[in-house]
Amino acid sequence: MVRIKHSFSGWRRLMAEPDHIFLKPLPNFAYGDYPVAFPFFYMKPAEHEDIIRKFVPKQNGPITNVDLIGNSPVIIKKVYFYYHFWFIIQNLLEEVATTWMNISLRMKHDEETDRTFGWILEM
């Protein structure tokens, strides 16, 4: 992970894979506390809604709410705040990491999902 400091936006983390090559500076499209990720248009959850619904229940909204993103590249903010005189670092990545890991493992261990998505699950 690389730390990026922009005076207009605070500290952010860039998560990228070692085979990513950036020929120009990566624009920081993250806004406020909202991270940004690169869309992968070959990921089409609507084409496999029956499989995706095993992991994203209907109460989470329409299948179009599933973002077409991988784990990289992502720019995510590192939030600092004070709580009862203690300096606390809240990393937004830490907030989603456990859920992301658990769903990823469940999808990989599900034979139908692994067969259907193959290498895309690695994304």
From TrEMBL:
Any Pfam family the entry gives: HPAT
Domain Hydroxyproline O-arabinosyltransferase-like: 14-123
Gene Ontology molecular function: any one: glycosyltransferase activity
Localization terms from the record: Membrane
A GO CC term attached to the entry: membrane
Keyword flag Transcription regulation: no
Membrane topology, from the record: Single-pass membrane protein
InterPro entries given in the database record: HPAT-like (IPR056508), HPAT/SRGT1-like (IPR044845)
Swiss-Prot/TrEMBL keywords: Glycosyltransferase, Membrane, Transferase, Transmembrane, Transmembrane helix
PANTHER family, per database record: HYDROXYPROLINE O-ARABINOSYLTRANSFERASE 3, PEPTIDYL SERINE ALPHA-GALACTOSYLTRANSFERASE
Listed name of the protein: Hydroxyproline O-arabinosyltransferase-like domain-containing protein
